[in-house]
Amino acid sequence: MNQYYEDGTVALWWLGQMGLIVKSGHTTLCIDYYASPDASRQTQPPVPADELTGIDAFLGTHDHLDHMDHEAWKIWAETNPDAKFIFPGKHRDSVLADGVAARNAVGLNDGESVMIGSFLIHAIAASHEFLDRDPGTGLYPYLQYIIESKSGVRIHHAGDTVRYEGMLPKIRAFGRTDIQLLPINGRDAERYRRNCIGNMTWQEAADLAGETGAAIVIPGHWDMFADNSADPHAFADYLEVKYHGRIKCLIPGVMEKIVYRRPSSITRTP
Question: Helices 232-242 & 202-212, crossing angle to 10 degrees?
């Protein structure tokens, strides 16, 4: 990960679930990484939390354990003392309680942006299964991010969300999406009964990718927990048939390196 990636090139590593490392130039972002081991996980963390260094910003889309891992954030606040921590502003108190310095705690809301090195990060509200906007503050507890490199490569990290009215225009407003990471695990009554809040089904996620015209889409949120999963190959097949191969689906291995160069060149290294 110490390699420099020239203008127009972005490198990614999928960490499982919705975890992603993104690097361009000398800037490295870590998004939604659940780094704590747990017996209920089908896949254990590929990088121990205390070994993850050299990160310029840690991003969390919402305050659920597999997206904002507070035990790991406590470690990273010490081992990456200059890193920024980016999160929905509603959760600022819990982030400061992790030991993150106030100068490094960057709370965002729908429509807000922040520049981190080679990346401009835009926040869009997510609906997990509901928008749950705080009526007093106007803050949304769930976010998704459009991550734009200086050369214009755009990555859409959808966090945990279902589609809602007005979401598609927000994504399209930033221009062409190069890479999307979308949750595909869906939602149903059985999960809702046990307070397992849902996301897009794999069909809905495929249609979002098709309607945004993403060049490459990665399915997420299917691998980690047996009782909250979906079939990524069904997602890929549906995407291929319905959109006639116009969108490339990648189902990467954990920590497989994906290097993307505009306009649409990919190399993969296990």
Answer: 40
